[in-house]
């Protein structure tokens, strides 16, 4: 798990596309708007999940909430390891 290095409002580039999801998650890939390799996203929210640690949500990707066993209804988030910070000059 990467040390969180992003803040709200940061622009980040997706380094790889999601190929599979953990089988214990309450949703399938075809139920989500997923980040795409090479695209740039704006960090909208940073959350900590009990099972997977830190996660990011983006202005450009919004998903419905799903019922999770430990935290209730939550919108999916994505691992910071999938993204790199875009430095704007």
Can you give a write-up of this model?
It is a single chain. The relative contact order is 0.32. The radius of gyration is 13 Å and the shape is globular. With 89 residues, it is mainly beta. It has strands spanning 11-14, 40-49, 53-58, 66-68, 72-74, 83-85. It contains no helices and six strands. The strands form two sheets. The chain has a four-stranded antiparallel β-sheet with strand order 3-2-1-6, with no helix packed on it. Strands 4-5 form a two-stranded antiparallel ribbon. Strand 4 and strand 5 form a beta hairpin.
In short, what is this structure?
This protein has 89 residues and is an all-beta fold. It contains no helices and six strands. The chain starts with 10 loop residues before the first strand and ends with a strand.
Write the layout of secondary structure elements.
Elements (H helix, E strand, L loop, with lengths): L10 E4 L25 E10 L3 E6 L7 E3 L3 E3 L8 E3 L4
Antiparallel strand pairs: 1-2, 1-6, 2-3, 4-5
């Amino acid at each position: 798990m990467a040390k969180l290095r992003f803040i709200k409002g940061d622009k980040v580039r997706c380094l790889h596309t999601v190929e599979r999801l953990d089988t214990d998650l309450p949703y399938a890939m075809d139920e989500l708007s997923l980040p795409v390799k090479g695209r740039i996203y704006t960090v909208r929210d940073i959350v900590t999940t009990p099972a997977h640690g830190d996660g990011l949500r983006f202005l450009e990707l919004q998903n419905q909430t799903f019922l999770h066993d430990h935290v209730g209804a939550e919108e999916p988030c994505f691992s910071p390891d999938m993204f790199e910070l875009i430095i704007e000059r």
